[in-house]
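Supplementary Methods S3. Input chains for the assembly prediction are listed below.
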Amino acid sequence: MIAEILSVGTELLMGQIANTDAQYVSRRLAELGVALYRHTAVGDNPARVKEALGEALSRADIVITTGGLGPTEDDLTKEMVAEYFGLEMQLHRPSLEAIEAFMARVGHPMGENNRKQAYFPVGALILPNACGTAPGCVVEAQGKAVAVLPGPPHELKDMFEKQLAPWLARRSGAHIESRFLRVFGIGESRLETMLKDLFHTDNPTLALYCGPGEVQARVSALAKDADAARAMIAPLEAEIRRRLGDAVYGEGADCSIEKTAFTLLKSRGETVTFAESCTGGLLAARLVGVPGASEVLGESHVTYADAAKARVLGVKPETLERYTAVSAECAREMAEGARRISGADWAVSTTGYAGPDGGADGTPVGTVFIAVAGKHGTQVKECHFRGQRAFIRTLAASWGFNMLRLEMEK
Amino acid sequence: MIAEILSVGTELLMGQIANTDAQYVSRRLAELGVALYRHTAVGDNPARVKEALGEALSRADIVITTGGLGPTEDDLTKEMVAEYFGLEMQLHRPSLEAIEAFMARVGHPMGENNRKQAYFPVGALILPNACGTAPGCVVEAQGKAVAVLPGPPHELKDMFEKQLAPWLARRSGAHIESRFLRVFGIGESRLETMLKDLFHTDNPTLALYCGPGEVQARVSALAKDADAARAMIAPLEAEIRRRLGDAVYGEGADCSIEKTAFTLLKSRGETVTFAESCTGGLLAARLVGVPGASEVLGESHVTYADAAKARVLGVKPETLERYTAVSAECAREMAEGARRISGADWAVSTTGYAGPDGGADGTPVGTVFIAVAGKHGTQVKECHFRGQRAFIRTLAASWGFNMLRLEMEK
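Predicted structure tokens for the full assembly:
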């Protein structure tokens, strides 16, 4: 099965947003074993949408469109699909009711333009939207298929995962299975050297993907079914794990360093708290992003000002004066203070310069001290990150979770 | 002048990266007054690159390619441009010398495949690469132009700004100027109704873009220079602001609701603190993301467990028992307690069900209470959000900043 992606939205051609919808769908198609040969993006222009759709359908078996399902006049993807195949648009009453219920719940009046979102080409398979008003659909005609998905990324992902992926899996014969090994603390080029001789096979294949502070090693195999593919992956995966040891913190595209920390805490029946300065709530926010976080987190504190470090966490004024707030000593007292006041089993602290300015004493931007306090003592690490403010804060939080996980595994 | 972008790289079709090159070039073309009607991305496949190039040239005056200039065998963009126009490839000696000097400087041996990067279609205008080995070029033939740019974003940006932008500005007469008005609290379809009669002009134009919890209204004008374009935008912008009132919280593609709150706090010399339950640190983390946040934030607290709400913030046990933690009463006491213990001028609290589960009493997922406490009292809002856990938390944090801004502006 050969697919193409057609994204619709003037905001793409204006450069207001990157086409992350196309990226997401592409990655998932690769995992589902669907060949993808082209992305096209056009603006909210009926003639150009229809022209691009026709071209894509002349080359591909299925075209997946993203965007252009909103309530406004220039949202016209479904209409152009109908026009291309010569189909009428028809009201889908369950969709209208779902949209009315959605608008009532969010307290907005139902406009005439919202009704438009409940019309579909005759015969379309409707894909309900769990996250917004615009349902998607799959239209099959003339031996081809067009899957119409909404543009907002969270709506697109939810609809793709729950509805389009199973539909595609049923259609596609071959099976690609992939494992994503998540590696923390080893840079991409060192990793490439460590695994050099493992890259030279066609099936299974090994590829590295670089993320902020971590690398994913993807092992993929193509086979007649999932079991056969998994059997091909297993020995390569085992060899990678043997070489990388505890730098492999988890597996799966949905895995993250905070989920790994959460799972470890939960399995041990333990709790954690954070004392954040430069990360300013990121550690807590990322842990709370994991469903069930209340089982391992009761409270957490951001102490950004020196006075707050002293008053809330009990950092000694002498420590702040002698070593400054950006010091191993301060990080240690922050973590130990947070653990004491919260009664948590573990505490992780961060203090550093995320930029744009470094310390008045010449300490460079990117200097961050991270401490992990537990019942067997406190570990402190001095890190030197490079990049913009947001990137440094993200890395500091990730290293905090990584230190916590390694301490727990000791 | 009509342009198209053709991006070359299998990594785009695998979904390994988003096409940020296309986004960057699109934004700059809009600023330079060059009309852009389509993005296309294909893999590192000679036949498909050549086919897509021919199609793009049949529609556009200029095609800007990104990627496929590396030293490896599957990098073939220049070769396909030459083949399309029937031109020979020719060694460009200054480029070869620059590549040799670059490789010597970074300490890598010069390979035969690096020589390939110094070959160009006969007659091409060479665009030297200040950041890497691959020079770009502009090929003009058959009344059309193809600009060939490298794929790595920092190389592309440098080459675009220093070399292609001046070339394009000389070619293009017109100038496009845009203003982005940021609107919070009015949904896209209601906004469209409120501004309906303003959409029907060709120049300036008005368009709406939907983001999480907010909408951007873009006003663009095409004129002979920036001043003339701005003069065309001003009356339309004034009319939009008159209709939308305080729902317009800022202007500019880089603006955000937390930056607006930060700027207001700073201009008044006031401070804020947060008492977060379901947002779990997101409010603090987003405010700390703004450089200079230490001027307006000293401390902040995540109180996820009921016991933490009571102990850290002083929420009354009777309140928790009678109304539960997800209640207007609890949100109010959280905000007032946080303001009291921190000494901040303002406090914002959040408590709700972000999912996957709602309340044991049947309160649905997405129910969030947000309170803002200040010296003139406390406001509480009950919100009903829909979507995944991460989306609900993001919306709750955004609404918290919006309530804070509106309270300050009262």
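DSSP finds 15 helices and 17 strands in chain A. Chain A touches chain B through 90 residues (CB under 8 Å).
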